Amino acid sequence: MLRRPRRNRKSPIIRSMVAETNLSVKDMIFPIFLIEGNNKQVEVDSMPGIFRFSLDKLLPEIEACLKLGITTFAPFPAIDESKKDKFATESHNPDGLYIKAITAVKKEFPDICLVTDVAMDPYSSDGHDGIVENGEILNDETLEVLGKMALAQAQAGADIIGPSDMMDGRVGYLRNILDEHGYSGVSIMSYTAKYASAFYGPFRDALDSAPKAGDKKTYQMDPANQKEALIEADLDVEEGADFIMVKPALAYLDVIKLLNDHLNLPVAAYNVSGEYAMIKAAAQRGWLEGTGAMLEVLLSIKRAGAKLILTYFAKDFAMHQQV
Ligand code: PBG
Predict the structure, then answer these.
(1) Could you tell me if 78 and 134 are in contact, meaning their C-beta atoms sit under 8 angstroms apart?
(2) By C-alpha distance, which of 196, 199, 211, 209 is closest to 277?
(3) Which of 121, 170, 212, 252 to mutate to test the pocket of ligand 1 (most atoms within 8 A of CB)?
(4) Pairwise CA distance, residues 4 & 312, whole Å
(5) Which residue out of 79, 146, 164, 270 has the highest number of ligand 1 atoms within 8 Å of its CB and is therefore the one to mutate?
(6) Which pTM does this prediction carry?
(7) Span 24-219+227-242: which CATH code?
(8) Which residues line ligand 1 (CB under 6 A)?
């Protein structure tokens, strides 16, 4: 036998010499949940190991992550029901939880990178990403709210804004508003191909942000579609996005590959809450070896073509790398 592929698998050193894909904590963006109050660190029931932090607890948590090499964070706020309304007014309140937290974090850690979330759902009394009228999600009216939100986040020091709402035209609209106000240096990571997915359940538990009525299928994409992701991606490129994102990651590895093959912008993938929860739940029962499953899943996302991964595993991964 002339060709024996097993020779390239014969030892850990050889295997690492021929590894085509490598994971680094630098590829990872850590989503992190905020709550009002003081001295609070509340675990999300459906996401073991993931907490909602009040601002005073968030700062030491970020410091601990920095020591592990995590440099980029995607904060999401859990807003009290009493502060939610139809127009998500709290989203651009300079004294609101989210804007205050961005300001405080960037003041304490000027060198970290914050990817802030632009969407109405955490602040919407309807639990939707847009303004609801007679059961319909209004597109163009919603853009105005998103614009105010993005501007408030940029003013607070956001490095990258992440529109996760799936309204048409939002990337161009936000790019314009940011530029007009002197924030041409703030980047946009667009949630380009965001599917209407059952894997967002634990995230909606964490923020208590599930839709009060209906579903998100008139704005988030149909899991049946691949070409539609190219339409969205072409638009995002034209409208000025700096990064494009596929979400969720695991059931959409083909879409990650498609966008990476066809477009020149860096592709990010969001390894979402349900993807985290299913591994953690199986590991807790002893049905899976959690660390191995985590590493394999993260590798698969990178191998498919994602340059960056938003993942609740970022800290677990970083700790695993240190041992
Ligand atoms: C909504 C938003 C969602 C997530 C991030 N932003 C959920 C949704 O569309 O309802 C989900 C992230 C996750 O599940 O980890 N703007």
Answers:
(1) no
(2) 199
(3) 121
(4) 39
(5) 164
(6) 0.97
(7) 3.20.20.70
(8) 119, 121, 129, 164-165, 200, 203-204, 216, 272-273
Structure tokens at 249: 């990651």
Nearest CA to ligand 1 atom 11: 200
Q: How far is the C-alpha of 113 from the C-alpha of 70, rounded, in Å? A: 10
Tell me what pLDDT residue 323 has: 72
User: What pLDDT, on the 0 to 100 scale, is given for residue 322?
Assistant: 84
Q: 270 alpha carbon to ligand 1 midpoint, in Å?
A: 9
Residue 268 CA: distances (Å) to CA of 90, 238, 301: 28, 18, 9
Residues taking part in catalysis? 194, 247
180: which 2 tokens? 């007009």
Residue from 16, 210, 45, 68 nearest 125 by CA: 210
Q: How far is CA 277 from CA 4, 50, 240, 284, in A?
A: 40, 10, 34, 10
C-alpha 75/C-alpha 93 separation (Å) is 16
Q: Which two tokens stand for residue 318?
A: 């970083």
Could you list the mean pLDDT of each consecutive 10-residue stretch along the chain, which spans 323 residues?
Answer: 98 97 97 97 97 98 98 98 97 97 98 98 97 96 98 98 97 98 98 98 94 96 98 98 98 98 98 98 98 98 98 98 82
Domain regions of the chain by residue span:
24-219+227-242
Q: Which amino acid is at 19?
A: A
